[in-house]
Amino acid sequence: MTSEQSKRPLARLVPGGARAARGKLRRRLEAAVRLIAALTIVGGLYSAYAPGVGRAEDVPTLSDAAKHGKEIYETSCITCHGTNAQGVQGRGPSLIGVGSAAVEFQVNTGRMPLARQEAQAQRKDPMYSEKDAADIGAYIQELGGGPQLPSAESLDKDVKNAQADAKTLAHGGELYRVNCSSCHAFSTGGGALSSGKFAPTLQHSTNRDMYGAMLTGPQNMPVFGNNQLSPDDKAAIIAYVQNLNKNAQSDPGGWNIGRYGPVPEGLVIFLVGIAALVFATLWIAGKS
Questions:
Q1: DSSP secondary-structure letter at 85?
Q2: What is the pLDDT of residues 181-198, one digit of tens each?
Q3: What span, in angstroms and rounded, lies between the C-alpha atoms of 216 and 137?
């Protein structure tokens, strides 16, 4: 076999191998194109049928009142309660879930903004109006939800109706003695608690103050939800307290001795009353 004849099979093999390599490459490119096309179609269909997915879910649309409340919040509250009311460790708790009721109670009683860190927030003249407090509460409500106060008109009407009904008023007194008097005293004058804390007097509290306190449980006070004390029960308690405070102004029991409580009253009774009885007994004995 000549050298020229031996080269012919090799010449036939080389072009066929090149064609096979080109065909394999073409198949791979076609598969890649088909995959990209399929992904594009699926992505387009998903975007068409779920147009809201790309919108930020953590940026809710706020009402006008909540927008105004947010402005106030970012001026006076954000340093302690943090961005989006999530709280700042060592400064202030999270407000997510406390509701507008807690915000309105704290702001309307002047406890917030807090003047300084101490055992208990003190009641003082409020920094903001009731409308501003309601707007801050609306912002916190729309941000995280929570308990809400009834309108001032409906609450005042319920309390007035409870005051007009002797049976409801007596029921409110019973509920107050069972649930409230252990801390706020029978005369609503308040009392000392542990660790420098205290139950404040109720003699200057409004209807909404007391309702908000029962609903949210500020400081050491427990929460009295509607499953524990119904709205009618709360109105009856408020009616009893307001009736008690109104009568206390005239001191129907006589000399109030500063309203310091039963211990000073007992001491006065002992020192004055018993001493008077002893002198009266000695005087009678001397005359006889």
A1: G
A2: 999 988 888 888 888 889
A3: 13
Task: Compute CA distances 172 → 24, 167, 211, 262, whole Å.
Answer: 90, 9, 13, 22
Per the structure block, which two tokens stand in for 203? 């003699």
| Cβ-Cβ contacts under 8 Å for 208 (sequence gap 6 or more) | 104, 105, 108, 149, 152, 155
* Each residue's pLDDT tens digit, 98-153: 999 999 999 999 999 987 888 888 899 999 999 999 999 999 999 999 999 999 99
Contact indicator for 58, 66 with CB cutoff of 8 Å? no
User: Rounded distance, CA 138 to CA 132, Å?
Assistant: 10
Closest of 153, 154, 134, 165 to residue 243, by C-alpha: 165
What is the C-alpha separation between 208 and 150, in angstroms, rounded?
8
**CA-CA distance, 225 to 248, in Å (whole number)?**
29
- Identify the pLDDT of residue 43: 77
* β-pair partners for 92: 88
pLDDT of 259 reads: 62
Return left, alpha or beta for 205; rule: phi > 0 is left, psi -120 to 50 is alpha, else beta.
beta
Distance (Å) of CA 103 to CA 37, 64, 85, 123, 207: 55, 18, 12, 14, 16
Bridge partners, residue 191, by sequence: 199
pLDDT per residue as tens digits for the range 43-101: 777 777 665 544 445 556 899 999 999 999 999 999 999 988 999 998 899 999 999 99
Q: Pick from 85, 72, 92: which is nearest to 143 by CA?
A: 85
